[in-house]
Amino acid sequence: DPFIGEKILREGKADFIALGRRLLADPELPNKIASGRLEDIAPCTACLGCIERIYITHEPVTCRVNAALGKEREYEIKAAKKKKRVMVVGGGPAGLEAARVAALRRHEVVLYEREHSLGGATRLAGLVKGLEIEDLVGLTRYLKTQIGKLGVRVRLGKEVNLAVVEEIKPDVVILATGGIPADPEIAGINRGNVVSTPDIYRMVRTYLRFFGARGLRWLTRFWMPVGKRVVIIGGGIQGCELAEFLVKRGRKVTIVEASDELGTEMASYHKIALLRWLTKKGAVWFTGVKCEEITDKGLTIITKEGERRTIEADTIVPAIPLRPNTELFQALEGKVPEIYPIGDCREPHLILEAIADGSRIGRAI
Q1: Residue 144 above 80 pLDDT?
Q2: Assigned superfamily of 183-320
Q3: Distance (Å, rounded) from C-alpha 29 to C-alpha 93?
Q4: Cα 78 to Cα 69: distance, rounded to the nearest angstrom
Q5: Which of the following CATH numbers is that of domain 82-181+322-365: 3.40.50.300, 1.10.10.10, 3.40.50.720, 3.40.190.10?
Q6: CATH topology of 82-181+322-365 equal to that of 183-320?
Q7: Per-residue pLDDT tens for 176-228?
């Protein structure tokens, strides 16, 4: 961290400070510090995606925040040959990055977000993940600052439909409307002891507006709309991180996963550390299972060995991958000169892919 490094230098504890991952996220970091432009520093969110590719998968390096990493010549920002009126729908990472890059290329950009604040799904992710390591709130703050400086007009609390688009008459529409939770096909999924992701988001978004992720994360230590025994359906990155969040709040957690592996899409370093910690804290998981039925007692599963058993629980929480939200795309297709779905709206993935998508389209239009 450059601020810690500066403090160490001023205290005479070191003569030289070297930075690693922070320079992958923002190669211009030293120049920005020297010129006093601290708010323009793209933050490293410590996702370890770069480390994963360099040391584990041996693939070309990528960065969650800096989509141009390793493609600097190809991704050089150049002014557009023709200035266009660009309408971005959705203020999550993909939409914010698309707006930033399009504005850098001198397009006239307006961004619409139906909520009253920017960040999209990262607001809920920040609540679950915490801010001490992966500061997703800081990432949103950086992107918001950049589009503000570039003159992007932001319209919060505005739902976009065909009528709105016809009124604005943009040359380009970029859809970053996110994904839709897909409920698993399990008997009893609509029972009262099931709390879905949309349910959780509806509960917390008002509080997020007033308290922010940091304040609400503190408040959840005292009350949450889940019981003491929780079963999480889905052991991907979302399910594993939710398990950590709940265990830290005194819940007894069981994860059930249809595949044979937990923590898919997690960086290996994070995954190993998290699963060790969950084991130490008494969390339990079952892989290779089939979820059969949700009852008042809990969740009935068929294990990989063919055994039928019921996991007793007060609350069942599905944490399965999203599906693309294509409703607006279908309504607008053929009615605007150019339309591009990006991020989870095109294909649900992680923040890295969302920002890469936004950057790619921002450079292409």
Answers
A1: yes
A2: FAD/NAD(P)-binding domain (3.50.50.60)
A3: 21
A4: 17
A5: 3.40.50.720
A6: no
A7: 999 988 778 899 999 999 998 777 777 777 777 777 777 888 888 888 889 99
